[in-house]
Design goal:
Blueprint lengths: L1 E6 L7 H14 L3 E5 L21 H13 L3 E5 L7 H4 L8 E3 L2 E5 L4 H16 L6 E3 L12 H10 L3 H19 L4 E5 L8 H7 L6 E5 L7 H13 L5 E8 L11 H16 L6 E8 L13 H17 L4 H11 L20 H24 L1 H6 L2 H5 L5 H30 L4 H11 L1 H21 L1
Parallel strand pairs: 1-2, 1-10, 2-3, 6-7, 7-8, 8-9, 9-10
Antiparallel strand pairs: 4-5
Helix pairs in contact: 1-2, 4-6, 8-9, 9-10, 10-11, 12-15, 12-17, 15-17
């Protein structure tokens, strides 16, 4: 199986946009989706606080699943059950279930109420996903595990290690899924298991309950290391394993454009790993596309921006490598005349859904942000004759206005046009709150600086007459 990961936290695409991209995913070689809802799921009753204002409705979830089925994309829901639970533990109703009272990322595994909470979360998600074959129960990056008071006491009295504590909780969650939903196989991220000895892993009994998903998003992935890890899991009894690469959201928390070459090399390294492991041990590959590094971080590359990278990654996996022939195929499917895998900037637009968003964000990054910064911070007339000191006192030599006003007005006009078009394009794809966040974070600061500069320039000029 080759799955596309949809990380919905903070930027859930409208159902109308998903209807456009699901057939594209399928055409590019995907046959499944790993959907991480977080706070965009329509939780209800005691879980209502978890539901964001821009969450999907139950009807929309059903429509998403119908659209996926129409495009022959099998859906696997992903929910967090240990680490990365900020969207739950940030609320006052659940703050008492934190591993560390100050930090909302990890769940306290010792409280019965923690497990009851997870049972309700799992039940509500499964209610809207009848017929799924797998459930991803997260469990990566359980930071501060073992540092809470109850954990310290438990570890001290039992003589166990933090990895034992982790495996105990994971086993409870997986056992609940298996017993409550016969036929469903739990999947879990593997990073918290990597340091455990083969003996500890074998004796834990996890191999009978979960399928580990090994993730590594680096371009210099160590092939030998990953092959050895897979062999270790096989020796411990894990019959099937999953691999996870990335097509976006893995090269910087505030990244706005996707470096395709990084992700292409990541796929190539994983292909080398696949060539050295038994075919029967590999259940599938997930190409992740992170939208935020965690619940509280800024948005990184939006989904439309990452689609060319996703196309390259999917076609590379499907064909066993990225060649000139594959590049031609990608460009043909995306309607692009040119595709640059080595740089962030690609001159050509495309005809794929959301291609206008990629074009406009590229314009902002290369043709607006950088020239604006250079103008305000490096232009010798601006820094020498209209500094913050001059602006505050409305002082400027009139002849200098002629030197800098045309460029300032030109840049401001360009900003106004691009921001207007980008806002309209984004609102077709995302909820207003996502559009507001992206604009405020990545474009408005530069636009507003320039706007204030022009206003100060006009005020200073009026003050001289």
């Amino acid at each position: 199986m080759i799955l596309v990961h949809l990380d919905l936290k903070g930027a859930p695409p409208k159902v109308s946009y998903l209807a456009e991209v699901f057939p594209l995913f399928s055409a590019l070689g995907a046959n499944g989706l790993l959907i991480e809802y977080e706070d965009t799921f329509p939780y209800y009753e005691e879980l209502l606080p978890l539901r964001s204002a821009h969450a999907y409705s139950p009807q929309e979830i059903r429509e998403i699943l119908r659209l996926a089925q129409m495009s022959n994309l099998e859906v696997i829901p992903l929910l967090q059950t240990f680490g990365h639970m900020e969207f739950v533990l940030k609320h006052k109703e659940f703050a008492h279930l934190r591993e560390m009272p100050m930090y909302p990322n990890s769940l306290n595994p010792h409280k019965e109420e923690s497990h009851q909470l997870l049972h309700v979360i799992i039940r509500q998600v499964m209610e809207l996903h009848p017929g799924v074959r797998w459930l991803h129960i997260g469990s990566d990056e359980v930071y501060y595990l073992g540092e809470g008071e109850e954990s310290k006491k438990y570890l001290s009295e039992s003589g166990q290690a933090v990895e034992d504590l982790f495996m105990c909780h994971l086993k409870k969650v997986a056992a609940h899924v298996v017993s409550t939903y016969p036929g469903i196989k739990p999947i879990a991220w593997d990073d918290m298991l990597r340091g455990a000895s083969a003996q500890t892993l074998t004796e834990s009994g996890l191999a009978q309950l979960v399928e580990p998903m090994i993730w590594d998003y680096t371009s210099n992935l160590e092939v030998d290391n990953r092959v050895a890890l897979i062999e270790k899991y096989s020796q411990c009894g894990f019959q099937k394993i999953w691999l996870a690469s990335a097509f976006k959201g893995a090269t910087g928390a505030s990244q706005q454009l996707t470096h395709i070459g990084h992700h292409l090399e990541n796929q190539r390294r994983w292909l080398q790993v696949m060539q050295r492991i038994p075919d029967e041990s590999l259940q599938g590959m997930v190409i992740t596309g992170w939208q935020r590094y965690d619940h509280f971080s800024v948005l990184c590359e939006l989904l439309p921006v990452g689609i060319p990278s996703l196309a390259v990654c999917l076609q590379t996996l499907k064909n066993g490598d990225y060649s000139e022939q594959v590049a031609v195929s990608v460009k043909d499917i995306l309607g692009m005349s040119h595709l640059d895998t080595e740089n962030y900037f690609s001159e050509a637009s495309g005809s794929f859904p959301g291609s206008d968003v990629l074009v406009l964000i590229t314009q902002i990054v290369f043709f607006l942000k950088m020239p604006t910064q250079d103008f305000l911070e490096k232009n010798r007339i601006v820094t020498g004759w209209f500094s913050s000191f001059h602006r505050k006192r409305k002082m400027i030599h009139p002849i200098m206005v002629q030197q800098i006003e045309p460029e300032a007005v030109r840049l401001l006009s360009n900003w106004t046009l691009v921001l207007r078009d980008l806002q309209a394009a984004l609102l077709k794809i995302f909820p207003a709150i996502t559009v507001e966040e992206w604009m405020e974070e990545h474009s408005l600061p530069y636009y507003q600086q320039l706007q204030e500069f022009v206003q100060d320039l006009n005020s200073a000029l009026e003050n001289q007459t």
